[in-house]
Amino acid sequence: MASIAEIESREPVNEQAVATIYGSLKTELNQIHSKITELEMEATEHSLVINTIQPLDPSRRCYRMIGGVLVERTVREVLPAVQRNKEGIEEVIKRLNETLEKKRKEMADFEAKYKIRIRKPDSAAKDENAQKEGSSSSQGVLVGPAS
């Protein structure tokens, strides 16, 4: 992941280069956000497992998947391991959120420096204009030349 300092050190020479760098920043932002979402789902799964096995007898048999292999353990052995894994996942999520905020700030600075404005696709712009015009277009009012 390139930082804004690295990007500025190789100052873009034209609009295409600015657009390419902006696109890569946006891609990085999306990748970080996707990873955060994935890890949050994993943390939720860990919470479900913890809540399910916590009230059980500690000597009860329990199965756990480790590296694609299903192993037999006891609740006493599995519960602390699952809790540690969940804490580790939550720590990674925290770091990724910090990274996400830094990247958002870098992207905002880049947008300000190069005066980047996002254009909406033509169909979205037409929809927006239709909404701004009011409900006359949605009521089927046609305006033609006066006779």
Could you characterize the architecture of this molecule?
GO terms for molecular function: unfolded protein binding. InterPro entries: PFD2, PFD_beta-like, Prefoldin. The protein is mostly helical. It has one domain: Helix Hairpins (Orthogonal Bundle), CATH 1.10.287.370. 65% of the residues lie in helices and 8% in strands. The protein has 4 helices and 2 strands. It has a two-stranded antiparallel ribbon with strand order 1-2. Helix 2 packs antiparallel against helix 3. It is elongated and about 65 Å long. It starts with a helix and ends in a 15-residue tail after the last helix. About 7% of the residues have low confidence.
Q: How are the SSEs ordered, and which strands pair?
A:
Blueprint: H1 4-9, H2 15-53, E1 61-66, E2 69-74, H3 75-113, H4 122-132
Antiparallel strand pairs: 1-2
Helix pairs in contact: 2-3
Features:
elongated, 65% helix, single chain, PFD2, two-stranded antiparallel ribbon, Helix Hairpins, 147 residues, mainly alpha
Sheet with most strands: 2 strands, antiparallel
List the helices and strands in order. Answer: HHEEHH
Average pLDDT figure: 85
**Strand portion:** 5-15%
Radius of gyration: 26 Å
What shape does the CA trace take? Answer: elongated
CATH fold descriptor: Helix Hairpins
Helix content: 55-70%
CATH domain class: Mainly Alpha
The tally of domains stands at 1
The number of helical elements comes to 4
Separation of the first and last Cα atoms: 64 Å
Known CATH architecture: Orthogonal Bundle
Main sheet: which strands, in order across? 1-2
Low-pLDDT runs = 135-144
- Report the strand count: 2
Structural class by sheet pairing and helices: mainly alpha
